[in-house]
Amino acid sequence: MNNQVEREQFSERLSVALETAGFQSNSATRLAELFNSVSSEGVSIHAARKWLIGQAIPTQNKIRVLAQMLNVEPEWLRFGTPAQNPTPEPQATDLLTASLLHNFTRLDEKHKKVAVQMLRILVELD
């Protein structure tokens, strides 16, 4: 398969995963902001734009971050293998929620329970 076809197919899978995860817009700015909110590696708006329009495929490390953000398998995102199609859980509709979900999934069970208790207290205070 030629490189241009691979880039275009990656772009299509990325768009599907973004939409499935609740991100309506295929905005390069929004994608870069989301990526940068969950990764210290950082990505420019220009790079995100190239991913979205099929001009480039991110490095494997960036694909792993994207896959984790969008709740898909990295292999599916990169190669389109049928291992896992994108799933809509969990959905995040804004950058703050996406970042919160990403960080929450990284906690161990003990700390997840603490975070849930803290959220319950905050909701009750409101």
Automatic annotation (TrEMBL):
Question: Which domain of life, per UniProt?
Answer: Bacteria
Q: Which Gene3D superfamilies match?
A: lambda repressor-like DNA-binding domains
A molecular-function term among this protein's GO annotations? DNA binding
Q: What is this protein called?
A: HTH cro/C1-type domain-containing protein
What is the organism field in this record? Answer: Noviherbaspirillum humi
